[in-house]
Amino acid sequence: MPLKLLFLLLVFFSPLTFASSAMPSFDLTQTTAGYLCIAIFVSAYSLVMAEEYLQLRKSKPVLLAAGLIWIIIGFTFSKMGESEVAQRAIEHNLLEYSELMLFLLVAMTFISAMEERRLFDVLKAWLVSKGFDFRSLFWITGILSFFISPIADNLTTALLMCAVVLKVGGKNYRFINLACINIVIAANAGGAFSPFGDITTLMVWQAGHLPFKDFLLLFIPSVVNYLIPAMIMAMFVPKEQPEVVHEYVELKRGAKRIVGLFILTIATAVGFHGFLHFPPVIGMMMGLAYLQFFGFFLRKTLPASLAKKRARAEAHHDTAALKRLGSVVPFDVFRRVSHAEWDTLLFFYGVVMCVGGLSLMGYLSIVSEIMYTQWDPIWANVMVGILSAIVDNIPVMFAVLTMNPDLSMGNWLLVTLTAGVGGSLLSIGSAAGVALMGAAHGKYTFFGHLKWMPVIALGYAASIAVHLWLNAIYF
């Protein structure tokens, strides 16, 4: 297969992902086994990209593809007398995945716990009840998305703010579409300057290419990426007043303390990585212990807490409070674990294992040679962001980490920025966009987002220019 044709296949169908630069690769790219592995991955990822239309969870095709690819690799390397190499490669990929999976699992568990304690419901009810007009809500939901996503991740943040928009938007589909686009851009931009804001930033941090504090260098470029399209779109948002819906939501016991424990968990993970030079996941798993002990405390003290609240409600003849007490359930950490985004975690596994196999067969060496040797690294990293919009930023960032090009700190920051915010160019380019198309089905659509792509691209280009200017000393 000619080199250019192979490169086009790799770019547009993205068998670009993560294995490890430390593992050897073999030139099996022009063998029957290589072609078969590429065909399997392309087929599987085509089904992933059509998830919205097929209603087929994205984890299913990549899990199957991962198994088939490694079966082919196993037989191929066995014939070559290199079975041990294949075994070491698959074990290494499993280790890489397990670190990220456990990290994400703990973060998702904390977010689920906050949701169960009604923290997000309280925020939503407050926003809805304040009587803001559509344009004010456009800005408030966008700005909140930008500042919540670095902590709570862009997907959770987008879904929370979308719920607010849907509640107040009613039948004003124009406002809902614009507000959802704004939320996607803001959540992706906010997630770009924090290791906890997106899976791609987490991968870069865990790989050791950027220390925790250096992600903050992307704060101003991320602000620019959000503000430019937001200011233009805001001019098209009506200043009408939506119907105000008053809803009383009471925080469940321990909600604020769980937020504190999450912050402590993040600090623990950063400490393990920064001071002890251990993987951050060790600190996150220790943080899960914080939550488990707190859950134990809430369960043990629940009867006394209920008795105290019941006495207070009876003394004040508060029938509504008495009714709410009847619906109180004990806090269960393991139920929160079960509510994690398992489809995302399993999709993550499938992608890592698929492209770990393709890397072992030599495909990523070809892409690395073209993008980071023949091209200027800055243009290569700009292209990474564009590919993120077409394919998904997770496999594209995996590709870059797998290639492990010799980049300056400025370029590592650049690729982190472009992979994070590039997905905003299309609604299918990020988890936040895909999720909102489902949550606001028929109101926020692919073509509704596509119409504003030139404006979003303006913000994308401006954020890159600002980064190149502000952080020039790092290149």
From TrEMBL:
Keywords linked to the UniProt accession: Antiport, Ion transport, Membrane, Signal, Sodium, Sodium transport, Transmembrane, Transmembrane helix, Transport
Stretch forming the signal peptide: 1-19
Xref: Pfam families: CitMHS
Domain Citrate transporter-like: 52-420
Localization in the cell: Membrane
Stretches that traverse the bilayer: 31-50, 62-80, 137-166, 215-237, 258-276, 282-302, 345-366, 378-401, 413-440, 452-474
Membrane topology of the entry: Multi-pass membrane protein
Family: Belongs to the NhaD Na(+)/H(+) (TC 2.A.62) antiporter family.
Stored PANTHER family: SODIUM/PROTON ANTIPORTER 1-RELATED, SODIUM_PROTON ANTIPORTER 1-RELATED
Descriptive protein name: Sodium:proton antiporter NhaD
Gene that produces this protein: nhaD
